[in-house]
Amino acid sequence: MNFNQSFIDYKTVTSTIVSFEVLIGSLANGFMVTASLIDCASRRKLGSCESILICLGLSRFAFLWTLFFMYLMSVYLTSLNGKYTDAVMYIFLCFSNSSLWYATWLCMFYCVRIVNISNCVFVVFKKNFDRCLPVLLLGSLAISVAFSLLLLSNSLTNVDFISSSNSQPLGVPSKSTSRFLITSFIGSAPPFLVFCIAAWLVVYSLTKHTRRMKEQERTSFKEPSLEAHYGAVKSVGHFFLFYAIYIISFNLYQAGIASPNSIEGLFCTVLTGSYPSVHSVLLLLQNNKLQQTLISFWQKISCYHHAKVKKAESTSTCNTA
Asked: What is the DSSP string of 32-71?
């Protein structure tokens, strides 16, 4: 098999998987936003968890499609790189950082709900978390836009920020790669540090609570009273795993270490897209309210399908008679 045939096979496999991730991620994030909005409309109240899920779903939906468009630019629409590279990278960084912030606040939401420590700073933050959440969400968006503007301002003043689709897989030339990676790191480091603090508090609370329960010999490791801790640890663990995979794979891909014409580039492309898609599916399965809404929606679809089939069968029987 020659190189051209191998490259065609690479593009076919990658495009199929990436398209599937976009479809699954769009459905998962769209359902998460829709279900949260319906719940808010029925209760006539916008809760903290629903607010975060709506912002997270919208940002990941936009982030996923921006990432997909970047992939199309690097493989199929290479003629657009010189015209739209800077704008696409600005939009990408904005939605990437904002989705990371919103996922971090979701982890912090789990933290303030189950962690009980006597630290005065944490007590004040826990008491005022719901009240300050709108400011935190809007502030996260403002920070994401501000860090993304750093890249946009550099691209507008740098004449070297032009198309170079053969040197970099996502259309960013080698001279701009370091600047893009540094800007991306600066924008993603603060939410990741906040997330690490929340994760440490959850694990610390779980360890302390488990030790206390064992000392009293009133429970086992799977006692229902620890379910909230286990659920939070699982959610935090999944978020950390997918975020780490996203950072590593995207940086390898963007730095040119994993060539877009190699099997390594295939894996990096697929793994990069798994963060805003597969992780959102896990959020749906781990959130009891969203899971119940999904089951109820699926049951209604099944009932509608069965009713339609029965109606078609009865119509066919009448016509035969």
From this structure: HHHHHHHHHHHHT---HHHHHHHHHHHHHHHHHHHHHHHH
129-134: long-range pairs with CB below 8 Å, 24+? 129/48, 130/48, 133/48, 133/51, 133/52, 133/105, 134/51
- pLDDT tens across 114-165, in order? 888 788 888 888 888 889 999 999 999 998 888 877 766 655 555 444 444 4
- The reported pTM is 0.80
Q: How far apart are CA 91 and CA 154, in angstroms?
A: 14
CA quadruple 104, 107, 113, 114: dihedral sign:
negative
CATH of region 3-289: 1.20.1070.10
Closest CA to 107 of 29, 206, 197: 197
Tally of CB atoms within 10 A around 305: 10
As a dihedral over the C-alpha atoms of residue 215, residue 219, residue 224, residue 230, rounded to 10 degrees, the angle is 40
Instruction: Confirm if 225 and 219 have CB atoms less than 8 A apart.
Output: yes
Q: CA 269, 196, 128, 286 torsion: positive or negative?
A: positive
The two counts, helices (H) then strands (E), for the chain are 9, 0
Cα distances (angstroms) measured from residue 166 to each of 40, 178, 219, 259: 48, 17, 61, 10
Tens digit of each residue's pLDDT (9 = 90 or more) over 89-127: 778 888 888 988 998 898 888 888 888 878 888 888 888
